[in-house]
Design goal:
Structural class: alpha+beta
Largest sheet: 4 strands, antiparallel
Number of domains: 1
Strand content: 15-25%
Number of helices: 5
CATH class: Alpha Beta
CATH superfamily: Peptidase S8 propeptide/proteinase inhibitor I9
Number of strands: 4
CATH architecture: 2-Layer Sandwich
Helix content: 40-55%
Length: about 130
């Protein structure tokens, strides 16, 4: 199980990825228990390039915001199925839809990223 590349990426960048996003990326491997093992590599490669994840990327401070968004745009331009949704200058973050391959590229090459959060709907307790 630990030989899969997305699991290695999640473990390597655990500080920069919040827990719900880590769980979401690791839940992709639940169906692998019932799939024959000779199909795992092909399905993992296909899933890494096509599965989309909505993320919020937080940068260290407002000085890093412009460079960080530029790095995110550069990463998105080089990968399919990815797009930058919106840019939040007041909180020094941006919202994007990314594949796990693009997310791994971004975490490896951008030093301005403080944390990557899963973009999910908030549940109203009332």
């Amino acid at each position: 199980m630990f030989g899969f590349s997305m699991i290695k990426m999640v473990r390597q960048h655990a500080r920069k990825i919040d827990r719900p996003l880590r769980n979401h990326l690791l839940d992709v491997y639940q169906p692998y228990r019932i799939i024959p093992c000779f199909l795992h590599n092909a399905l993992e490669g296909f899933g890494k390039h096509t599965k989309k994840v909505d993320v919020i990327i937080a940068f260290h401070n407002s000085d890093c915001h412009v460079d960080g968004v530029g790095a995110v745009e550069d990463a998105i331009d080089h990968h399919f199925f990815c797009q930058l949704k919106s840019d939040f200058i007041s909180t020094s973050s941006c919202c994007a839809t990314m594949t796990p391959v693009c997310l791994e590229y971004l975490l490896n090459h951008c030093e301005h990223i403080r944390k990557v959060h899963l973009d999910r709907t908030m549940i109203n307790p009332l």
